[in-house]
Amino acid sequence: MLTLGPLGFAAPWVLTALIALPVLWLLLRAVPPAPREVTFPGTALLAGLPDPAPITRRTPWWLLALRMAAIAALILGLAGPVWKPAPLATATGPLLVVMDAGWQAAPGWTAARARALAVLEQAAADARPAALLLADGQAGRGETLPFQPAAEQAARLRGTEPQAWETRYPPDPSAALAEAPEGFATLWLSDGLDHPGRAEWLAALSARGPVSVVPQSAPVRSLQIEPGAAPALTMRSTADAPWPAVLAIGPDPQGIPRTLARLTAPEGAPASGETTLPIDLPSELRNRVTRFAIEGEASAGAIVLADDRVRRPKVALAGDVRSTEGQALLSPLHYLRQALAQRSDLIEGTLAEVIPAAPDVIILSDEILEPDDSALPEWVSDGGLLIRFAGPRMAGSDLLDLDPLLPVRLRPGGRDVGGALSWGEPRTIQPFGPVGPFAGLTAPDDVTVRAQLMAEPDPELTARTIAALSDGTPLVTREELGQGQVVMFHSSASADWSSLPISGLFVEMLGRLVQSAGRGAARDETPQTTDDEPFWTAELVLDGFGRPADPAEIAPVAAEDLTAGPAPGAPVGIYAAGQRRIALNAGGELPPAGAPAAWPGARVEQAATQPGLSLRGWLVALAAALLAIDAAASAALAGRRGGGMAKGVLA
Amino acid sequence: MNAASPLAASQLRARAEAAAAALPALLLSAERLAAALQPGAHGLRRPGVGEDFWQYRPAAPGDTMRQIDWRRSARSDATFVREQELETAHSAIIWVSAGQGMDWTGDRSRPTKRARAELLAMALTLVLLRGGEKVGVSGRPPQAGRAQADRIAHDLLAQEPAPGDADLPGTGDLRPLRRMILIGDFLTDPAPVAGYLRTAASQGIAGALLQVLDPVEEAFPFSGAVRFRSAAGGLRHETRNADALRDAYLDRLAAQREALERAASAAGWRFGTHDTGSAPGQALLWLHGALAG
User: Fold this and answer.
1) What CA–CA distance (Å, rounded) separates A148 from A133?
2) Where would I find the beta strands (DSSP E) of A165-282?
3) Contacting residues for A555 by C-beta, under 8 A, at least 6 apart
4) CATH level 3 topology of B9-24+90-292
């Protein structure tokens, strides 16, 4: 940079073009004005007339001066003038540039990289060695930071982008700096947030030379999903700014991704910190959502990829019209309704009515299916979950053999235990096994079963039983059918056969079953390693800006690594193992606004302090304005010369 | 804006009627013709088919009974035949140049030369029709009657522009006893015009030549560097000092007019000029006089 008094030039060699100005002056003076084109029928009479001594009409001096000024302003503007340029890194000696490169750095990445590039180019011009530490969790692992010519580091920096995980520093500063020169200056382009190891690095760097810190000026926002029966989004921000909207993005009926809904922060939400947005969408819409994104925010943390946790299953309670007339507490549907209303969308009606609504689950209580009915078996084979409950009607029917959708063959008549005419006590429920949909639930002792439908002995009976009574007889059996499954409760859904429907266990069991509808049993919130699926494969990954990246480059990830959140090798994305899919999202806790990370011992440059006032735009605009004036003046001159006659030229 | 917006035929006629209203009906001066070709409104001062009384003559063998004027015959012993004066019509052909230079005006407040020429042609047509003459545009048969005015107005407006700057009527219109009226700008080479006039004169056809020019063409108010282009684009002339060309141009224009004048008088025609800046009545008066003389 060439500095003349308070004025600096970024590209001083452009100023040599000013030499051409006097030549341009002579040229512009000598060139005669372009002839006017005139249509004139008398041209025939002019043919062959010799042109008398031509008069070169000189451009007026003030017009020439105007053009000269415009060109001079353009040349000066292109030379990159800066008013009172801030001395960029006046220190001599080696230079270390530290860049936070997690998703938190994405909003201000362009500015930070431009700043780092400027400093590195300056260092290259001064022939200072430089090192570049990208805090992306990949650099500096077990190796020392190389100090190389600054131009090489600048070239390296140009290709870098923020990563889709948190900013991570190499674990051991002293090891990384082992081969560094004695003293060096440090420029730290921080994302403004605290990360593990930052204090150690700051101390280590401060001990070796001056440290300048440039915190990110753009606010960092993150989005997180709170799973549960009614999932909600939590948005966090480091800025005291109005909350932006959250876009729910998913395929439209043509399969083209588009914004399905805009969620806005509730009225009266605090201006900073965090706010919660309920996902208040119709279930048809919500089940199509593939991602939530903060509007206008380009970072992986501002995106929540939706997995099955966001979907709310649609459950149909079918059949039994009589229940509308009976007492509510005696209706088997009453307990099902109570158990499911919180976590699913319920529809009710006859089978013929509910199947076209494409529910995820259909529950039948004490119904015997027609053997030749094909709609329900088709729906089950297409991935539906059919849950059936036994009851007096099934017990009394002699058509059980013909029912097409039973997991096991049932013995007609049923079984009474603990009644007045039977031996034995009512049976309790056997503890649930470690595998199966009910794994982890505990059966209270006071849940007893007094009557059940017995299964015929069968070699597959044990495999199909997922819950049993204390005497080993099946309570719940399951059979896969096509892509779907049929689950049979061998007891009733009302309280007259067992106390299960009035226990909390009933709610949890139904919840587990309903959650497993559709995509199998993959609704666990944390991935679990199973023996057959030890690794999760990336189906979709995002880069640090939240843009889709190539998932083929990601090696399969072990389940324990996924539970720790996004990390090098496991970026934000959707991972699948077998039938299970989970989303790995980055957004998480952020420090409250006004409490940025502290930088003891370092010089913090506020992003607001500009490195000098660039005059380039102003000068180029001035040149454009002068040229516009010149065009207007030339037009006016031409008009005056032509006089009134010019108006007559109508060709 | 080359031409004023085209006039509808009815508009042209209405304006022409207004221009012609002040003129007395024009009868072409009688030029006795050897053979009467067609009956018309001209008294030819000899007996023939007509409306006006000419003379009584004694009946001669060959006269039919119906021809005998019995009232005159009753006053004497001889029988007389009443004869009418022979009448015939002159026919005039009006030609308006369709050269592309005609569709031009130097100032949008003035009509184009062609518009002015059409107006003059139409006014003259009306005057002649009112006098009972047979009038037609070049290339069409001349006819008499008020209805012919509409046809002529239509023909004038329907005329296609000529491909070049110059235009001349075809010699097919040249018939004995016709009058020709040529209206144009005649800015190109006068030699073809002179040749046409010689051909016409050899058939005993008289007529008038009216040069319609724009004031810009007569004054040449250009200055500075100008690239001139003829209306059809065929001719170009570039100068860097148009001011100095003015005298030479005006000299050439005068020479052009002189050449046309010479050619016209040699053929027994009349040559006149008209500029679109002046009132059309003057030119109409001149045309009237040229045909009457």
Assistant:
1) 12
2) 185-189, 211-214, 221-226, 232-237, 246-251, 257-263, 273-278
3) A569
4) Rossmann fold (3.40.50)
Q: A394: helix, coil or strand?
A: helix
A-B contacts at Cβ under 8 angstroms:
128
Q: What are phi and psi of A3, to 5 degrees?
A: -120, 125
pLDDT score at A641:
54
Chosen from A36, A37, A45 to mutate, greatest number of chain B CBs within 10 A: A45
Which pLDDT score, from 0 to 100, does residue A190 have? 85
Closest CA to B184 of B127, B249, B276, B102: B102
Task: Look at residues B289, B166, B119, B273 and name the one whose alpha carbon lies nearest to residue B211.
Answer: B273
Under an 8 A CB cutoff, do B229 and A39 touch? yes
Residues B138 and B38: beta-carbon distance below 8 Å:
no
Confidence of residue B212 (pLDDT cuts 50, 70, 90): very high
Q: Where along chain B do its domains lie?
A: 9-24+90-292, 39-88
Q: In what order do the strands lie in the sheet with B91-96?
A: B134-137, B91-96, B178-184, B206-213, B270-275
Domain-wise residue ranges, chain A = 2-33+58-78+622-648, 95-213+594-611, 221-305, 314-515
In whole angstroms, give the CA distance from residue A387 to residue A467. Answer: 14
Q: Are strands A484-492 and A474-481 parallel, antiparallel or unpaired?
A: antiparallel
Q: Residues of A with CB below 8 A from B246's CB?
A: none
The pLDDT averaged over each successive group of 10 residues in chain A (651 residues) is 71 83 77 75 82 62 84 86 63 81 85 84 82 76 75 84 84 79 83 82 85 82 76 80 85 83 79 78 77 86 78 77 60 82 80 82 86 84 88 82 85 74 80 82 87 87 89 89 88 86 88 69 45 72 84 80 79 76 76 63 64 78 90 75 42 34
Measured between CA atoms, how close is A60 to chain B, in angstroms?
15
Is residue B210 predicted with pLDDT exceeding 90?
Answer: yes
At residue B51, the pLDDT reads: 66
Alpha helix segments (H runs only) across chain B: 9-20, 70-74, 113-130, 146-157, 191-202, 215-219, 246-266, 280-292
Interchain CB distance below 8 Å, A51 and B107: no
User: Per-residue pLDDT tens for B85-97?
Assistant: 666 557 888 898 9
Pairwise CB contact (< 8 Å): A41 & B185? yes
Taking the Cβ of residue A640 and every Cβ of chain B, the question of whether any pair is shorter than 8 Å is answered with: no
Higher-confidence residue of B188 and A26: namely B188
Is A38 within 8 Å of B231 when comparing Cβ atoms?
A: no
Q: Among all residues of chain A, which has the CA nearest to that of B236?
A: A43
Using the Cβ of A32 and the Cβ atoms of chain B, whether some distance falls under 8 Å is answered with yes
Residues A95-213+594-611, CATH architecture: 3-Layer(aba) Sandwich (3.40)
User: Residue A595: which residues within 8 A CB-CB, separation 6 or more?
Assistant: none
A49 inside 8 A of chain B by CB: yes
Contact A43 B237 (CB under 8 A): yes
With a cut of 0.85, is the ipTM above it?
no
CB contact under 8 A, A38 and B229: yes
Q: CA of A382: how far to CAs of A373, A517, B222, in Å?
A: 16, 11, 90
CB contact under 8 A, B231 and A53: no
A443-462 in b/e form (b: 16+ CB < 10 A) is: beeebbbbbbbbbeeeeebe
For chain A, first and last CA: distance in Å? 55
The CATH number of A314-515 is 3.40.50.880
